[in-house]
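Lecture notes, part 5. Sequence design as translation. It can be helpful to think of inverse folding as translation between two languages: the language of shapes and the language of residues. The source text, in structure tokens, appears below.
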């Protein structure tokens, strides 16, 4: 009772003050004893001893059960601050916690529910009265989750060598200095990582690592965390300080992936209003990361903001033999997000006339075998041997699409330069895909 008063659990401050006061050097709880005696005399006067026995039994069982539960959780939380003089085995603590709860409901389910509710209310009252006091169940659960995450990452890393190509999923890393200037890239990134993928977003801060850039980094980090919380995004956010974008990219490709899955894809972005220097940086980044064997995605965005999220167009050409699976999977991954759940995927394949029939059969077989939700009526094969004719077909078919996906290869990028990203200015938002890894669709 004295402890409850000290924790200011009761609604009246006068009652809390009266109960929390102690007498003498030992801080004897005289006032709390008087209050307890009054409660006991009232219960005895009622004459229902069975009622008292039930209540006392329930709270004793709750006390023992709570101690066992805390001991069990602390074992897995592995917090340094937890140093008990007597340490129980975790399985004994778990057994004790389960049995206490079981026995409570065996004795009287109604009184068990009342007792548990009362303890929860008391705990919430203590939390509210001790704002800013960090030691609570949340700290213990946080420690337990940290330990579980560490174990999972180690196990995933051990089993990584045996993974199947058909089990591929995107683990994307993005380095961007324009985080607070535009929202489209981060929004698109969150779509890709909503259900099937993992994402690591690194806000790039140019400069040497010193006190000033460190303060800027911490300030940016708090804003990024707020963004994730408000939008319920499934992205791991962080900052990276580096003298140049080139060194930041080199650092990022060496960053461990989330949940023990190594990063396998880079995402770059530019706006249709950006200067060519920005696109040159993306070109150099794609060439730079070629040695890593990671896939590259380049998002070109503008003022359309993906429209109504209704139409995704995939354009396949004779250069996209290695890109087609990744392009189709990216479109499928977007459909998993609520913003795109009503979207429709269309595939347009422009092949040389002599290959059109053969490629049509292969494409339809692949989509059917992989159960990709693309209607056959949305698969269009267009024989063409002329680049100008291809550009006209793209403009005619996809000028109103909300997202258009093209493929590109390293060889084509080195040959055409940044021109490869500047084609089709009449389109709205465009994603360029280069698959460096072999990805199966089964």
């Amino acid at each position: 009772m004295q402890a409850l008063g000290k924790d200011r659990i009761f609604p009246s401050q006068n009652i809390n003050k009266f109960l929390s006061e102690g007498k003498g050097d030992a801080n004897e709880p005289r006032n709390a004893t008087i209050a307890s005696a009054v409660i006991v005399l009232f219960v005895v006067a009622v004459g229902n001893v069975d009622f008292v026995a039930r209540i006392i039994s329930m709270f004793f069982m709750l006390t023992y059960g709570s101690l066992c539960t805390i001991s069990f959780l602390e074992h897995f939380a592995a917090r340094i601050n937890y140093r008990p003089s007597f340490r129980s085995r975790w399985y004994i603590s778990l057994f004790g916690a389960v049995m206490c709860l079981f026995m409570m409901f065996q004795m009287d389910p109604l009184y068990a529910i009342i007792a548990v509710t009362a303890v929860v209310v008391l705990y919430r009252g203590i939390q509210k009265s001790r704002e800013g006091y960090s030691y609570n169940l949340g700290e213990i659960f946080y420690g337990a989750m940290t330990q579980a995450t560490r174990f999972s990452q180690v196990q995933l890393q051990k089993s990584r060598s045996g993974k199947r190509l058909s089990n591929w999923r995107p683990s994307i890393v993005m380095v961007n200095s324009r985080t607070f200037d535009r929202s489209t890239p981060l929004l698109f990134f969150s779509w890709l990582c909503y259900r099937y993928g993992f994402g690591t977003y690194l806000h790039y801060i140019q400069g040497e690592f010193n006190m000033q850039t460190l303060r800027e980094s911490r300030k940016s980090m708090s804003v990024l965390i707020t963004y994730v919380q408000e939008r319920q995004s499934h992205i791991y956010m962080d900052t990276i300080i580096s003298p140049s974008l080139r060194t930041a990219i080199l650092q990022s490709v060496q960053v461990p992936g989330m949940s023990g899955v190594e990063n396998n894809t880079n995402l770059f972005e530019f706006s249709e209003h950006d200067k060519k220097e920005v696109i040159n940086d993306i070109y150099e980044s794609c060439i730079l990361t070629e040695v890593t064997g990671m896939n590259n995605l380049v998002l070109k965005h503008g003022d359309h903001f993906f429209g109504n999220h209704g139409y995704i167009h995939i354009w396949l050409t004779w250069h996209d033999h290695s890109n087609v699976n990744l392009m189709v999977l990216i479109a499928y991954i977007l459909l998993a997000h609520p913003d795109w759940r009503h979207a429709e995927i269309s595939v347009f394949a422009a092949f040389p006339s002599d290959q059109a029939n053969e490629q049509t059969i292969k494409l339809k077989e692949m989509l059917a075998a992989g159960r990709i939700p693309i209607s056959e009526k949305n698969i269009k094969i267009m024989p063409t041997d002329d680049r100008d004719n291809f550009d006209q077909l793209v403009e005619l078919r996809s000028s109103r699409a909300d997202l258009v996906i093209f493929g590109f290869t390293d060889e084509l990028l080195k040959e055409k330069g940044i021109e490869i990203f500047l084609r089709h200015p009449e389109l709205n938002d465009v994603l360029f895909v280069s698959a460096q890894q072999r990805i199966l669709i089964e």
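The translated text above is only one of many valid answers, since several sequences can fold into similar shapes. The chain has two domains: 48-140, 163-434.
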